Every structure is written in structure tokens, then in C-alpha cells.
Amino acid sequence: MKNLVIAEKPSVAKDIARILGCKGKKEGYLEGNDYIVTWAIGHLVTLWEPEDYDMKYKVWSMKTLPILPEEMKLKPIPNTYKQFAILKKLLGDANVGTVICATDAGREGELIFRYIYQLCNCQKPVKRLWISSLTDEAIREGLKNLKDGKAYDSLYYSAKCRSESDWLVGMNATRAYTMKYRDLLTIGRVQTPTLALLVNREKEIRNFVPKDYWELKCDFGGYQAIWFDPKTKETKIEDPNMGVQLKEKVEGKEGKVAEIETKKVVKKPPLLYDLTELQREANKRYGYRAEQTLNIAQALYEKRKAITYPRTDSRYLSRDMIKSLERKLQNLKDGKYEEYCSYLLSLEKLPVTKRIVDDSKVSDHHAIIPTDKKVDIEKFSVEEKNIFHLIAIRFFAVFYPDYIYHSATVITEVEREVFKTTGQQVIQLGWRVLEQEEEKEPNIPPVKKGQKVAVHGAKLEKKQTQPPKPYNESMLLSAMENAGKFVEDEEIKEQLKESGIGTPATRAAIIERLIQVGYVVREGKNLIPTEKGMKLIDLVPQALSSPELTGQWEKALNQIAQGKMDPEQFMEKIRNFIVFLVRDANERQTAVTFSRKKKPRGTEEKEKDVIPSIGLCPSCGQGKVMEGEKNFYCDRYKEGCTFRLFKEDKLMARYKKKMTKTVAKQLITKGEALVKGMVSPNSGKKFDGTIQLKRLDSGYWGWAFVFSNPKLADKKEEGE
Fold first, then answer.
1. Which CATH architecture has domain 275-397?
2. Can you give the residue ranges of the Toprim domain (predicted)?
3. Which of 309, 405, 471, 633 is catalytic?
4. pLDDT per position as a tens digit, 447-472
5. Fewer CB in 10 Å around end: N or C, the chain?
6. How far apart are CA 175 and CA 185, in angstroms?
7. Residue 309 is a catalytic residue
8. Looking at domain 163-206+472-587, which of 1.10.460.10, 3.30.70.20, 3.40.50.720, 3.40.190.10 is its CATH number?
9. Digit-coded pLDDT (tens) for 677-717
10. Rounded to an integer, what distance in angstroms lies between the CA atom of residue 588 and that of residue 585?
11. Which residues contact 342 (CB under 8 A, 6 or more apart)?
12. What is the pTM of this model?
């Protein structure tokens, strides 16, 4: 009997196969004496669409809402069906005894495997490979210490509830608000509260009324100082006449240093990176988008084997990693990091503190750090070098001494008016030698208490209060991670402190999704909500746009993952929430309207009730061929008719074309169609080809060339 290993991606599968000695290349998998290694391509399985449950849902109508299936069902994703079929065959192979789940060690990775396993009706025992890096050593160690798959049941239930609840909210709320306001309005559990953050900030900016104020600054020769009110500590002067009087009062006069307050400030090294902190820093340093940083980090993890698992929310290491820390430093000693590594390795003992190692703050994965593998950084792309540099420098910094400086406030008195100067003096640069930043404060003035000073000049500066800054990606990621500050409930605030809006792995995709659907645009580095996005937040109930909802859901999902909450109890609350959402959308009275093209006269149902077919089904001769999102299909599919034509089959894609409605209609009604502008994959030349409808050997329907330039296309080629 053989062990079947299922990885999440082909690249990871090849690494595992190499270590297991699986050299036999087969279609969709690699085989050895004891192991078969195959792969998913991300998600191979998805939840049913509403129309899969009942064709009445094909029509978007308030009358069919809410959509609450008794059981959420699964189906293969058409574009990757071939690989799914390979996995299904392998899972059912009598020679396979045990299945090893080797998808990414996290909630989504668990879901990818379990959905495949479930849809294939597999009952074979499962072992779990749980690792945080893809180095050969880490994979070998993980394979020696496989976990029982049942130990991750709670994690799967949490992932399943997340998937199903997001489907229910997205499908029902999107349809309800789209039908109500007659414009496509996509709604999401995580997407909508994120949009609300941007909209609320934009409203603050738009409603902001600037106010003039003045500041009085004096030049005391060796240093500058600013006037302040000793009672309010405020430096702003709202009355310009008062400012002029103060300037005339002190100009050319003599004062004295009334007070010098000095305090020692100790700044600990920053914590290690989790994904969100890495994305923020990369955005500030290099202007990288959150999604871009994630992709670069993923390449450093999978392709380069240079860093540990990047999709983590922890900024700490576990105790069992202490023994490998010096080895990581040794690997990075050569080249540009030699000075830092040599210093740390010269220490009698590496200073490991609770700010670095804390098992209680490591859940699925530890912080992002370099792996044990010795890598050639010069072979990295510029982007990879930049992200790796951030991770390496932060890894060194946590072991460096504190940054220590004296902070001083000098109070200078002139004609009973007080002026303050702030400055600092570095005592120990410590970790700042690695992460140099511009000094924000000048050095401490070289003065003593009681010293007399002359006013060499006084300047009254007119200024204006400034509105809040619009969010850039770094700021938005911080707001999403620390969304708890926007809610009142302390318990939920604490949960949001840990989970925030979304997860480190999904926040970048959420931002990109908001841009994709037209709710947000990029203006330089800033993220600005569009009028459509602004209007959407005005019309949805606060329960849907508030971070509080995400906090409640994340708390429940975490409890499910820990085995502390019944998944059915959670889903029942979600269903009740969906009923509320649909009712609220139906009953809500608002003047909000969206600009859109005029529809033909008639009611919503009159427009939508009749779905035009493109012809009689050539397979069963009774049904009508309808246009779906991804294919053309017979409406008698529930009665067993298998007719379908995919819009994007592989052969069409090869010739740079898609199955259009016009071509499909000609095939159905005439049996053949002329496809213009096909591009030869060999020569790159365009040609017109005639294709004919036919039943394929697989039992499905498709097409084949009947006439074309033989030098440009093969007459024998067929497509589904």
C-alpha cells in the first residue's frame, strides 16, 4: 500500500516528491516506491452557485430571497477539473492506504484539502504535514512527525463556517441591495467594514473646516523655541492681534533658561514581523502594495526557501526554535550582513527574551524569519532582495541592545512669557544602528538653568489646522488590524485587537477587491472611496458596516477552531442574520440612488423573469440552451441532460478566442459556425476557421475544426 501526499501547489509537491524519492512522472502526480505525490492548484472545489440548487435562483429577484440551502454542497471548479479528476482517481485507488494532507498549514489550506477529500467521498485515514518552512530539513522533520488528521477537525470546521457564512452574506446581501437599488452592489462580511473605514475617513476630510492659527518662534542664538500657554500647554495662538502683541513684547529682550527637564528614554527593539507589519513596512519603505508584498514573500517562501511561512499573525517564536537561531545567523554571516551576524555570534549567549520567544503568543505559525537554508541573495530579484532585507534586519535587531537617549525640554522665560525647546541626546544607539531613521528632534541645547539668553529674533507664523490624512495602504492595514478602537464593547475590542478585520492572509485581497468592484480608487499612494462606495455605506445597516460584526464572527470562528463552540450554533446565527439583512434591504427607505443606464419599461420581475434561450438543446431535443456565467447548458440538466459548451475551454484559449454567444447559437441552430480572428499558436498569424458541433468521446459535447488553413490549425483538434 502506498501513501498519497496532496500538496497545495505543484511547486511544493515537487519539493516533497524529491525528498521522498518520487521520480516517476505521471500526468498530474509523481510516484515512487512508497509514496505518490500530487497537488491541488489552490482551490479545486467550490460551493454550489444558487442556481445549482434551483434554477429559479438564476433570476435575481427579491421574491426568491433569502437563499438558505439546508446543506451547502460542493462541486469541482471547471477550469481545474482535470486535476480534480486525477486526485479523485488517486484517492479511490485500491493501492493507496493513507492520505497525507500537505496543503498550507493554516485555515485555508485545511479547507482546500478537506473539500477535495469530501467531494471525492474518501474514507481513508488522513495524516497531516504541518510545517512552517519549505527547506529540505523542515520537510523531512515534518514527515517524521506527521499528525493525526482528526487533530485538525476543529480548524476545518472553522474554515468551513467561514466559507459558508461568507457565501451566505455575499450572495444574499449582494442580490438584495442590487435589486433594491438597481445597480450591481457587492456586499461582503469583511469587504464592507473595510470600505466603511475608508468612507468614514473621507467624510471626516470632506467635513473638515480649516481654522487659522499662529505660532510665535524665538531665536535665542544657539537654539530655537516656541511660545506656549503654561495653563493649556497649547502653542496655537488663535487671535492674530495677541500674536503681534506677544512678538512686540519679547522682541529684542533678554530672557533666562528657567527650567531644564531631562529624562532617560529606553526603546526596546521592535518585534519580529508578522505579515501585516511586513506589508506596512514595505509600503512605507518601497511603496509596495500589500498584495505585491505578499506575492514577493510567498516567492521567498516557496521558490527561494529563504523565509518561513509568511501568512502568519504572530510576531513571536516558539521555544523549540531557540537551538536553531545561531545556525540562521551563521548562514547569513557572509556578504552584506557579516558585520551584524559577527557581532551577535561573538556574544557569550544570544539574548533571548519574552519579546522574542513566547509559546503563548504563537498559534498556527511563528513570526516571519530567515530559514536555516544558506541562500545566494545575489540571485534574488530587486523586490525579493528588498523584502528579504527587511526580514533579515528585523531578525538581527531583536537581539541587539536597547536604543537609549536623553530627552530634554528646555523652558526659556522672556518678559514672563514662556518658550519651550525639545531635544535629545543619544546615549546608546543599540538596534537603531540597523534601522536608521531620520532624527525628528534636534540635539539638546548646550545651556544651563539660570543662564541668560538674548532674543535674536521673533517670528509669527500663520498656519492652518489640517484635516486627517487619507488612508494609504500602510495606514489602512493598521486600521484593519487594530479595528477594536472603533467599537465600544471591551470584549469585542480585545478580540479585534487579536483578529481585526480580515486576517493577515486576506487583507491585501480585500483591498484589491474594493478597487476591482469600483468602490475605491488609488490616487498616488492613497486609497480614496468613490461616490459609489460612499453611497453604499450610507444605505447598508450599521451591523454590516461596523467592525463589531467582524469581531463577533472572528471570535466565534476562533472558538470553533479551539473546539469551544458548536459550528451549527454559529451557522444558525448566521442564517438569522441573513433573514434580517434581506428584510432590512427590502424595507429600508432611503433617497440614495445610483446612476446607471435606463432599463426598458416594466417591473423588475418582468425584466428578469424570462431568461432568453439561444436555441433548442441538440442533445435531448427537449430542453432549451441557456447562457451561464462559464458555459452554455441545457435547462433540463436536472433531468440528466449533459449538454454544455464551455466559454473558455483549453483549445479555444490556445487560439486566443472564447466561445461567444453568437458562435454558440450558430453551433446549436446550424451545427457549425465561422470563428474569425483565431491566432495560430505556431506562427502567431490570424485565420478564420469553421468549427462543427459534435459529441466527444468523453460523452460531453464540444466542437472540432472542419475547415481552416492546415498550416495554422490541426483539423483533428477538438474542444469541449
1. Orthogonal Bundle (1.10)
2. 2-135
3. 309
4. 999 999 999 999 999 999 999 999 99
5. N
6. 8
7. yes
8. 1.10.460.10
9. 888 877 778 888 888 887 665 555 777 776 665 455 544 44
10. 5
11. 333
12. 0.77
